[in-house]
Specification:
alpha+beta, Alpha-Beta Plaits, 4 strands, 3 helices, 98 residues
Length: 98
């Protein structure tokens, strides 16, 4: 992850974390949920957690008051997809340079 990218994220962002099967089609389906709802994705990061499992981390802009509820519904919807083992949402931690 690029440290400067973390510094440029607004304090009002939300972060979702998915533990999913290693499948590009599944990643596209999850990110498609955000696009379909018009949610601005600030940053996407993924890493391999095991041989056939990856961790997908999505940061979105929390500009509107209803964004938090929409993201919660998206996480609930994505958690029903075959191949999603776990999903959660949380406020993003903003890292500041010392």
């Amino acid at each position: 992850m690029n440290p400067s990218a973390s510094l440029s994220r607004p304090a009002s962002s939300l972060e979702q974390v998915y533990l999913v099967e290693r499948d590009a089609g599944l990643l596209c389906r999850i990110l498609g949920l955000y696009a379909a709802r018009g949610i601005d994705v600030l940053h996407v990061d993924y890493a391999y957690a095991a041989q056939h499992v990856m961790k997908l981390q999505v940061s979105v802009e929390n500009a509107l008051s209803e964004t938090e509820e929409v993201v919660r519904v998206l996480v609930d919807k994505a958690s029903t997809f075959i191949g999603v083992f776990a999903a959660s949402d949380q406020p993003a931690v903003v890292r500041r340079a010392a």
